Amino acid sequence: MSKPGQRVLAELRKLIASGELAAGERIVEIPTAERLQVSRMPVRIALRTLEQEGLLCKTGRGYRVRAVTREDIAGAVEVRGVLEGLAARQAAERGLSAEARATLEECLAEGDRLFANGQVLLEELERYQRMNMRFHRTIIEASGNPAIAVALARNDHLPFASVSALAVDRDNLEQEFRRFNFAHMQHHAVVDALVNGQGARAEAIMREHANATLRYADYFDPARQGVTVLHGDVAAD
Amino acid sequence: MSKPGQRVLAELRKLIASGELAAGERIVEIPTAERLQVSRMPVRIALRTLEQEGLLCKTGRGYRVRAVTREDIAGAVEVRGVLEGLAARQAAERGLSAEARATLEECLAEGDRLFANGQVLLEELERYQRMNMRFHRTIIEASGNPAIAVALARNDHLPFASVSALAVDRDNLEQEFRRFNFAHMQHHAVVDALVNGQGARAEAIMREHANATLRYADYFDPARQGVTVLHGDVAAD
Amino acid sequence: MSKPGQRVLAELRKLIASGELAAGERIVEIPTAERLQVSRMPVRIALRTLEQEGLLCKTGRGYRVRAVTREDIAGAVEVRGVLEGLAARQAAERGLSAEARATLEECLAEGDRLFANGQVLLEELERYQRMNMRFHRTIIEASGNPAIAVALARNDHLPFASVSALAVDRDNLEQEFRRFNFAHMQHHAVVDALVNGQGARAEAIMREHANATLRYADYFDPARQGVTVLHGDVAAD
Amino acid sequence: MSKPGQRVLAELRKLIASGELAAGERIVEIPTAERLQVSRMPVRIALRTLEQEGLLCKTGRGYRVRAVTREDIAGAVEVRGVLEGLAARQAAERGLSAEARATLEECLAEGDRLFANGQVLLEELERYQRMNMRFHRTIIEASGNPAIAVALARNDHLPFASVSALAVDRDNLEQEFRRFNFAHMQHHAVVDALVNGQGARAEAIMREHANATLRYADYFDPARQGVTVLHGDVAAD
């Protein structure tokens, strides 16, 4: 896909994931092209792609944002969990390369620095999120099993299913600190398992860790307000 | 996709999976259309689809059959294992519907009849294979998680990764009896787990069961000859 | 414990496991000593040991055989499953010694010979049972974790919970062939996993395999008659 | 066992677990009785019990503290992990009673209060430890499988293997806050799984959680000093 095409696709995914384009809303080519200041062609291609991914559905002349239920998301998070769990298991069984190990340990150290003073700021969570995506990508590559990335690519397009979308409650950063510290300690535990060749353990931690993006947020306040979605660079994923 | 398009796609997949179209072989539109007695358009679309699936790669003017390594297949079988395992776990946790349970028990009874006299014939294995595909499809649907079927669809196109392709050693049906009996007893065990709400157990059996299509065949004779591939109706999958 | 003491203990365990000494039945020192043709002292010690194990309960002057429910047995089989599963996982993660691997492969070959002609005789199942106990013992030792054997020792005293007691339906050896072939194919699969360093897979197979002694027997005929219990040399366990 | 006998046993276990009675040290009846201000009989019985548990070994006239290696402890922690994991799985599959659920939620709320202000004090960790033991005991009972507690009882006597011994680095309570918050978030996750009937998930979390007592402490500082062991009421366990 062309550069502008990829940018348009990433923009539209964010607008849908954030709810700015709400379920049921109509999306038409020309106004969208004007809004994003691009020509019609990349918009047309992006809309067709989003339809294939299940985020849009075709109506008479245009598209509508498909309603994504909580069950849809939960199901896709389970799928991500077993696939990333498989990656961690296979990475542990093959043994980590020195390079992969160094990358993972850098990610741990970066997270430890972020959490060292007992609190986090919203802008720090953006750094956390970039580190987080690097961490996950490293494990998927370390599996040596290309079929995992293929299956994940299909699954990741659902909003919140991907590790690249991270919901943050900006009104309650004390609790978010505890939640992100939990997720980061899971990173520590999975690296411990990978380094020591404990495949079953690495798999179990990674499967559970898939719940960190969304589900853990409910432990404190199921009806929370003020949620911001941090996106990694989706197009580069 | 059009009816003829689907038929062409299914035919080409079989020719590749069976090795009649070997790795490296060139595939060109016109002779392929003549061979399958269809027009060029459905062939063109099918070839593009097979390229996206990773079975063909583009060369100057046409396509070549991509070499699929043993590692590629093993990786895709692992992916199938964790996805079908997830389906079985979620089916057990939700509880089976009366209809799903009846279908699974019919499949068990049909297999028991096939194996009751202590041997199998090649044509019986074809019946087994249809029953087998019905069994797997029922569990995936019973999960209530549509993201599983989506992820599997992408994975199943690799030869031997799918439950729809079953390798049989026609020169050694005594040993094949023991192997298929093993696979069928795993079906018994997974239904036992599903009916009794044992999700972890159902998942573990189903994951291991993914090895039945190919890996178990090596336990008797790693360098075997005379292997036939039984295909379910791939297009209807 | 003295030699006669061990023999008395093994004899009494068999009589309880086989039901010859039924739940609720009184057991008194002197007649038991006469029946087994030993002096009273080894009987007294054995009865006290069986009380600690939960097979007998103390009454006024003697003991009674404690009723063991199906749930008690199922619970102990689950415990055995997770402990043997852990042993297999740790054995795979450490890597098998050449000696352990050779022993396991001998066990596989012996089972393959027994099943090669498509049927089994009762006396062959006794050989199977000795091989089976050797197989399990080898994996527990290969774990390098002595805490597993300690925890198993306590659990194994419940009738049918131990791998050393194997229920066989002598009136239906065709079906028993299919059941034992299933158990033996699980042995093949677990060795495949151990040899290839697949810890999670080895654990999952071994956990499920704990159901082979009793639960699988129900798949054919829940209300079966004519069950014989084959015992390995319990005292030597 | 008599009240003084239980007290003596608990005292001696603590002295061994804390290292005050070091590996190799001789323990003789009379001085021990004087030190603990009891008569010789409860000391004699306690020493024999500790020998059976593997904490002491018999020498000529008395006992010595057996050397417990890091591998011994790691092995026993693995055993505890699979047994508590099994308990959580079976509790999820049966469904929690209203009473068990209320107890677990009380434990979560108590921990949340302890961690709410972003730090912990040593005396608060003692409260945490009592809550922690109650939490674990509730899950083991909720399994409905008495064989689990029997197998755990044997395993728990090794120092640090039991949930009743908790190592705390009193010089570094900021890091300990992060570690205990991790353990407590695992409690949240396991209750979430139990309440929603997710047996495989509950098992996986509980297995990993066994590492919280000791292993996680190494993530920050492998060669740490100043470790205090908090004991629950061991005798009442």
Automatic annotation (TrEMBL), chains A, B, C, D:
HTH gntR-type domain segment(s): 2-68
Record-linked Gene3D superfamilies: GntR ligand-binding domain-like (1.20.120.530), Winged helix-like DNA-binding domain superfamily/Winged helix DNA-binding domain (1.10.10.10)
Range of residues in the leader sequence: none
PROSITE patterns tied to this protein: HTH_GNTR
Gene Ontology molecular function terms on file: DNA binding; DNA-binding transcription factor activity
Cross-referenced InterPro entries: GntR_C (IPR011711), TF_FadR/GntR_C (IPR008920), Tscrpt_reg_HTH_GntR (IPR000524), WH-like_DNA-bd_sf (IPR036388), WH_DNA-bd_sf (IPR036390)
Domain of life: Bacteria
UniProt keyword annotations, A-Z: DNA-binding, Transcription, Transcription regulation
Keyword Transcription appears in the UniProt entry: yes
One of the Pfam families matching this protein, by short name: FCD
UniProt entry tagged with the keyword Nucleus: no
CDD domains: WHTH_GntR
PANTHER family in the record: HTH-TYPE TRANSCRIPTIONAL REGULATOR LGOR-RELATED, TRANSCRIPTIONAL REGULATOR, GNTR FAMILY
Descriptive protein name: Transcriptional regulator
Lineage: Bacteria, Pseudomonadati, Pseudomonadota, Gammaproteobacteria, Pseudomonadales
